[in-house]
Amino acid sequence: MTIEEVPRPTIGPEEILVEVKASGICGTDVKTYLRGHRFFQPPCILGHEFAGVVAEVGSQVEGFQVGDRVAVAPYVPCGFCPLCQAGHYELCQNKSGVASGAFTEFVAVPKEVIQRGTVRLPKGMSFAAGALAEPVACVLNGLEDCRLELGATLLIMGAGPMGLLAAQATLAQGAGQVIVSEYNEARLAKAAEIGARAVHPEKEDLLEVIKQATGGALAQAVLVCVGTREAVEEAQRYVAPGGVINMFGGLPSGTAVSIDAGLIHYQQVSLVGSFGFTHIQYRRAVQLMAGGRLDAERLITHTLPLEEAERGINLSAEQRALKVMLVNGG
Ligand SMILES: [Zn+2]
Ligand SMILES: [Zn+2]
After folding, report:
1. Taking ligand 1, which is a single-atom ion, which protein residues have CB atoms under 5 Å away?
2. DSSP code for 64
3. Which H/E stretch holds residue 286?
4. Ligand at shortest distance from the CA of 89
């Protein structure tokens, strides 16, 4: 990774230029840094979770002014392709996105993203919180697919930033209990602090904890926030009949997972996956944080200047940081 001077982007009449104030380091950035990514061919600017201040407004743009504090979704769906028409906005085949990654000073925002993915930060909401709207939106997408009823029990496997945001969002939305399993002690402590029942599987029998918590009924949904085959296979032990296992942590395409067919047929368990977010969930994420129901910022363990992006990525890769937030100028 290098730091380079790049020209300040010029905008067209239908665009705005946003000065990035905060950008979060995400698991995707870490994976791309370590192993490469088919969407991000170097040289490129990484980062897709950001908030900032409107620095320039194109002559034909309405509704935004220089100085507005905004959170910006990295991409928005078209609304018209077959998948959007079917309501699967997160699978849109014709997405529009911002012109560059967010680990930079200025990002040009196209018309579509201004209209559907740019949200003014409510009073009192920080840029860091705004930058977290994207991961929170991804979590809301995953939770919708879990089909949890009020009062239900959710098991979250893995207390990385996404698992912990999911725990907070689920509790905010009225789940009965959230059980989090995790091996890293610091992350486990964070899960407990948020209000989840935190379980270290080497110290406690996870299945017994779930049985006790649910009167033997098991978890209505298991959100697998670990990108391993083993975790998905293990999840089958904890899910209630009629429940949902959600492969939320990314597995490489082509990965084979072994599933007990009886669980799907006789127990009517659904195996689903969730990826990305919709523009609707992005707005909802901002609202959820603004209302104080979800304090995503408490997951930030490191706030670093943009110049230290590489150190932040390494801290994340080594699990020495939970969430790293990069900030630009004061
Ligand atoms: Zn992200
Ligand atoms: Zn579409």
Report:
1. 26, 49, 135
2. -
3. helix 279-290
4. 2
In the block, which residue shows the tokens 């304090």?
A: 295
Model pLDDT, residue 174: 86
Q: What mean pLDDT comes out for the span 155-163?
A: 97
**pTM to 2 decimals?**
0.96
**Rounded-to-integer distance, Cα 222 and Cα 292, Å:** 26
Per-domain boundaries in the chain: 16-131+295-327, 139-273
* Fold exhibited by the domain 16-131+295-327: Quinone Oxidoreductase; Chain A, domain 1 (3.90.180)
Strands 197-199 and 106-109, by their bridges, are unpaired
Percent above pLDDT 70 for the chain? 100
Q: At what angle do helices 27-35 and 309-317 cross, to 10 degrees?
A: 90
Residue 330 clears pLDDT 70, i.e. is over it: no
CATH 3.20.20.100 matches 139-273:
no
The residues that bridge with 65 in the sheet, in sequence order, are none
Mean pLDDT of 190-196: 97
CA 207 to ligand 1 center in whole angstroms: 31
